[in-house]
Amino acid sequence: MKRFAVIVHHNRHEWCHNLLKQLLNQDTCVVIVDNNSTPPLGYHPDDIDDADDYMIVRHDPEPFNLAELWNHGIDWAERIHQARGGGEWIVGVFNDDISLPPNFMEKAEEAISRYEVTVAFPDHSGRGNDVVCKDAPGTTYDLGVRMAGFANVWYGSDGFRFDENFPVWYGDDDAWMTSRTMSGSVMMGGVVVDHLDANGNFTRNHEWQIQAGIDRGTFERKWGFAPW
Fold this sequence. Notes:
32% of the residues lie in helices and 20% in strands. It is α/β, with parallel strands linked by helices.
């Protein structure tokens, strides 16, 4: 199965660069979506062995829309995948402020294949065991096993895209609900990702906090309840 990854990036150049190297070391082709960074993220050919296996694209939606940035990266990854002959593939979607264990993409690929699910994500609540969710979305919602928004890996052939009606918040919650209308999800027990600045950009942006309330209402209208 071919491996791809999308990193949505804004200004945290050192963290993004480290994440890029981690992914390249895991046989993964990487698309970095640079959103309005100052200065823009640059290439580092002298520091990276696989400099031909990543690309940086600039995308600055106005108003800001995180789901659109995620989708923009997935679209680019799919173009590259098709140009390389297609076949089965996975695509990870990552914040730029995380650090991955060395075997993360391998574990995700194995979990998606073993459980035949649409998405795999890390054990963010310390359960220690795999948690598979294939039940149809209802009004029950367990925060302990919901999809981690900062790191998730999709089975590319399922054709998933994020709902751009969630520009700031609840897009990951909506994606997890949507995965349950497809082939389901798995939280990979014991697979831990370090989140270095959890919700940092959000807490520093008052406009995003206002939009989060709007996005909560959008989720409630779509699914019939508010997740949290």
